[in-house]
Write a structure and sequence with these properties.
Rossmann fold, two-stranded antiparallel sheet, about 25% strand
């Protein structure tokens, strides 16, 4: 982010939020291969400033910046992302920009719901999720209430490396998991369309 001074206050001003800081248990950290963002940016446009609210080591942040976006980077745990702030995403109550992240999978639905609660109408929320996020009776109800505008399915495997260790993942043969970008636009009530990237 331009002119970043590292203060917690700057983060809140940038995303127009105020909150009560709290600690909660840390989850496993899976870094996302940067080409996931490069492919997304070829098919979607976002607000000039975006919020990466589970930034980890900054892999997606760097790729977003390379695509011309100013990025507000935060995470509940400091995992080494440059110019980031340590914030519990669920304590923030307002966001004036689009949100793009790979959320902790066990809280993926909650990340989507909270994102759509705090952004303004017309804002986008893009979540990097397993393709299996589409499955399940509970998710059917969830998608009826919050239909994504677009689901971008990867035509090749994208790596998500535990603790950001891509070398070990590649040595073990890569990934057998299929991922997609799920893109919501707050207020959208139409049908979900599927594309391939």
């Amino acid at each position: 982010m331009k002119d970043w001074n590292g203060s917690r206050n700057s983060i809140f001003k940038a995303i127009s939020a105020s909150t009560n800081m709290s600690e909660r248990q840390c989850d496993d950290y899976y870094a996302t291969e940067s080409k996931a963002i490069h492919k997304l940016c070829k098919v979607e446009k976002f607000s000039p400033t975006v919020w990466e609210c589970a930034c980890g080591g900054g892999h997606l942040v760097k790729a977003l910046e390379e695509n011309g976006y100013e990025v507000i980077a935060t995470d509940i745990v400091n995992r080494g992302c440059p110019n980031s702030g340590q914030i519990d995403f669920f304590t923030l109550q307002e966001c004036k920009c689009d949100i793009i992240t790979n959320p902790p999978y066990k809280y993926a639905k909650e990340f989507v719901e909270h994102s759509l609660d705090i952004v303004d109408d017309g804002r986008k929320v893009a979540m990097f999720l397993k393709l299996t996020f589409l499955e399940g009776k509970a998710r059917k109800v969830f998608f009826a209430k919050y239909p994504p505008k677009k689901v971008w399915v990867f035509s090749e495997r994208i790596l998500c490396a535990k603790n950001g260790d891509f070398d070990s993942l590649k040595e073990s043969g890569g990934s057998a998991v299929a991922y997609a970008w799920f893109v919501w636009e707050k207020g959208y009530k139409g049908e979900t369309t599927v594309g391939w990237i």
